[in-house]
Amino acid sequence: MLPKDSHIDLFLGWKTSGNWTLPATYDSILNAKNSMCGDECNLYIERKENQIRILSLGGESCSICQASMGILFSNQTLWSKDFFLNQLEIRKNALEDETLSKRIPVDERRFWELILTYPNRHRCALLPWVALGKGF
């Protein structure tokens, strides 16, 4: 039985925002691993000039990491390096300052609000962003 304050249903809902089916073709896999807990995040991508499109998601990870992957997948179809760095900075600052920026999209604010209440899970929430950053 889950505790009353469990947010697993919310995290699973965000997870479903992503595509978890292995694509027929992809250019490469961007991978990040959390050395503290073993969570692993795989982003199957295609490259278009200087941009990256996330085609699908994979890896063994906790519900927070999977929710973050789903949110990342649903955010943008093509990522440029500048846009990625800007969006990553917004989220990192929110976690460091413990305040949510109005620049975080409304549909993902609840996720980051919850993550603020779990300081030991910030690495889980940022792991997909670490993986995407390896592509630039």
Automatic annotation (TrEMBL):
GO biological process: iron-sulfur cluster assembly
Origin superkingdom: Bacteria
Name the UniProt record assigns to this protein: Iron-sulfur cluster assembly scaffold protein
Example of a GO MF term: iron ion binding
Native source organism of the sequence: Leptospira ilyithenensis
InterPro entries associated with the record: NIF_FeS_clus_asmbl_NifU_N
Matches recorded under Gene3D superfamilies: 3.90.1010.10
